[in-house]
């Protein structure tokens, strides 16, 4: 087999790899986040309507269950990715994610089948989480193993945009569907349309990914007979590798997870459910902030190739920990001053909308700093033969348990304390803790060659 040099991959080939990986990952994130974006509406379809707050929190708990399932998906599919290859593993995760999302569109509501409805919803949500637990590690590893050492932050940061783009696409599809069907029909049955569309998107992505080549670094190990026979055992058997996974989790990923989910998804909940801004305005504000913020993931990923991963990631988390309370308080003041209550929802004037969009753009900027360089950092931290497994386990455990549950925990804290801002204690504390641990223990990986 001809020796592969990732520093000499033609730029055309590199972009083919990035596009094929990114398209599928955007769709998987779209699938994952339409559930969250529609949680306030679908809560009344799958849970008793007598207590809307309890129904909403129950739906967020089901949303959180998908995140809790992610570490198990990371274990399962990380092992498969190190045994049979990156390409085939994230083809499988794509089909699982798309199939479960498509199925949610056809679950009968609570009035028809009672508790079976939330039970089926929860089961499908767990399948989504398992699939996502295998997707990210595969996409990040696949792109990174093609990228040149000196520009790995730049090229892997395109994968980092996919979560935000998937969230953005979910918002656009939801708003378009609502406008076409009308508010009443959308709340009754139209919310199912964005879930059903997943079937089409997954088929398109499958055919794009099916023609991809396997990662050359993985293929090289396979030809040489040096693949890991038990990646999970090897990942944990080595004291040095266990230490790296723990450092990655508590010195980078926990903070990154809460900053990403608080700055985008919890901001949406805060504006719509807590401040009571109308549904359309809320989603337009979030969408505008994502348009502004998405290119910053690539900017900060590229910047990390020059100044280092550690400074940028920890800087974003520190800014979030310091800025969340004043920024969310500022949002509350804007809504109080610039909003008008009409039929149970607050409508903002243009000044209020622009101010909220500006604040949300700052929140996305913090997320871009924390998240943009992290794929390159994680790939550079672990050896090729157990990379998929070693990356996926801490990433999905920290993001699933700590980051993904941030909206649920924050909303629950606000509900039990009757405070609009009590929920911010959770992301602020975890972001600050991660900065401290990362500053002490996190290694700098910028420019490292990928080891076997």
TrEMBL record:
**One Gene Ontology cellular component annotation held by this UniProt entry:** plasma membrane
Main location, first listed in the record: membrane
Q: Does the keyword Mitochondrion apply?
A: no
Cell compartments where the protein resides:
Cell membrane
What does the UniProt keyword field contain?
Cell membrane, Membrane, Transmembrane, Transmembrane helix, Transport
| Membrane-protein topology | Multi-pass membrane protein
Recorded superkingdom: Bacteria
A Gene Ontology MF term for this entry?
Answer: transmembrane transporter activity
Q: Per the database record, which ranges form the Major facilitator superfamily (MFS) profile domain?
A: 17-446
InterPro entries, alphabetized:
MFS_dom (IPR020846), MFS_sugar_transport-like (IPR005828), MFS_trans_sf (IPR036259), Sugar_transporter_CS (IPR005829)
Any Pfam family from its record, for instance, is: Sugar_tr
Gene3D superfamilies the UniProt entry points to: MFS general substrate transporter like domains
Give the residue spans that cross the bilayer: 54-77, 89-107, 113-134, 155-177, 189-208, 244-267, 279-300, 312-336, 356-381, 393-415, 421-442
The record's PANTHER family line, in alphabetical order, gives: MAJOR FACILITATOR SUPERFAMILY TRANSPORTER, SHIKIMATE TRANSPORTER
Q: Give the protein's recorded name.
A: MFS transporter
Q: What is the lineage of its organism?
A: Bacteria, Pseudomonadati, Bacteroidota, Cytophagia, Cytophagales
